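Appendix B.2, paired examples.
Example (i):
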Amino acid sequence: MTDAHCHPWDLLEYLTEKGLTTGTEGSRHMPIHPEEERRETGAEVAASSWNLEQFEYHERLAKKAREDGAPRLYCCFALHPQLSGERDFFPSPGLELLRSLGAEGRLDAVGETGFDLYDERYRAGEKTQDEIFADHLEIALRYDLPVVLHLRKAMHKIFPFTKELKKLPAVVFHSWPGTRGEGEAFLKRGVNAFFSFGTVVLKNHREAMACAAFFPGDRLLLETDAPYQPLRGKDFSSWRDLDVICRGIASLRKEAGSACSTPEELEENSTANFHRVFANNSG
């Protein structure tokens, strides 16, 4: 299995706070350290971070996995658009770090970046989001890196950048928020786009379900957004959810008569797609 978008640092913080990493208190969902669970499930993941401490933690996990011959972890970095809603947010240090990581060849992708206009707090930072996204895109183009996009209530913001997106090796739409027509439009315009789906398709989100059912199999990715998109009845998401997500999407595709309509086919295709995005950029 592969996970195109997750936050191992945040998952560890959450589980540590809840006392769920020791196996003594509790949750059958994940009674062990998240990195142990990742290895047990065999999940290759693309891990997003937005500060140096998070990135270096992911980088250490990636190095250890390579040394052990374990499932790979790919390191992504960006200033999340939601940071624009924080007081005293100064993007310059983060952008300098992003440039350094790109120049040093330490990045597998730039992300998650993009736009978040979900509520008034984030809408108030729209100008800042515009400025930092332009910087992220310039850095990704300079170092020929894929981009992982976050677009919440902001699909209209990304279409003007189609010309630039076409020049990138790949564009991953995290938790695809658009319509079937919008996704097809990116492909028709020559963007090497991949559409990532998580637990939202299991929660009766009609548009996401239709997109997961009908998009081409060679454009699909699976994700957990761990720990932020839990299954119903769960408090957090983790890599054990990938099998449930895969089976749910396969069922939708079978009902729609689309290719990759068995869990085995979907897993094989999404894994190949994941490697097309991330593995070609990793040392």
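Example (ii):
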Amino acid sequence: MDLDAFEASPVGTLVPISGTDPRTAKHFDHKAFLPAALPLATPNLAPETWAVVSQAALALGRLDQAGRQIPNPGLLRRPSIRREAVSTSALEGTYAPFAEVLEADVDDETPSSPALREILNYVRIADSALDYVKERPISVRLLCELQAVLVKGTSGETADAGRVREVQVVIGHGASGIEEARFVPPPPGDQLLAGFQEWETWLQADHGIDPVVAVALSHYQFEALHPFNDGNGRLGRLIVVLHLLREGVLREGLVTISPWLEQRRRDYQDHLLRVSQTGDFDPWVRFMSEGLRARADVATAQVERLLSIQESMRDLVRTLPLRGVGADIAQDLIGIPVVTSTSSSKRYGVSYQAANSGIARLVEAGVLKEVTGGSYGRVFLAEQVVKAIEA
């Protein structure tokens, strides 16, 4: 890490670290960056930045209003979580096609690859966390529990899983030694634990900072602390949505920030780094506000497309006519666009034969398409819905 670039930082200090680098097996004496507590007042922001913050708030408001048009907005949340899961994992180098994730998710079977396992782990923690924060605050304890599930069955499931890390981590080092790392977060121990607890206290405080600005600040601080051995990036981006829910900006987790960040990976990393180096939050807040504005607009358009599809499903149910489980499947396709006879039987509490017959009617109507090509374990996809939520 370029220590000179951090020496005069007004938002943190360099602390000495030493040990044996596991990558090079060499002893090191270096320094790590310990971020100071977040400010209790809004940092100085340029008028241009405030304009983008306001635009983001308005876009998020439009999204929230769009989501209220459906009696069961949780249906709209399902595809949003899965889209976020794909992009947030891609930012960490884990890739799987969106349609493949939907198919793997349908019957809770063992994922066919390590990548799918990681992505579906994210889906599970996001589902539970979005419900949790509707009633309770974001906390260190919650994040520890989420991290344990996120890394379960993956290479990140170490002795530190589910706990604040007890090892030194570095960011952007490749095969080089710790001195060449792009960023070195604080060492394990009392300072890291105290910083994480301060972050929780700040997050729950009534400091009066604009919610969009507060979301940007909290995300920076979490990533600078890097409190876990693995999963910090994915958890940090999930916290963005959780924070918006806690602030009352959104009622459902319908916005996905990671697709925007995925397209600007280097800018994202550079902005985070520059805050630590300079203490200037303005470019970072503007960057995150632009992302929230853009993704809120995308999500609003997506919701409108899905609502249009749902209306066409209602018309289909009336004109076929379609009754029973077939009608239920059709109405829920905007949130559950991949189905099997087994999953539908469980979801709607009907026999396998009834679910199979309902799906067959939707295949005949051109709503569903069988995508496995086999006679057993068949999976059916609503292509129109998947296209509407892939943005």
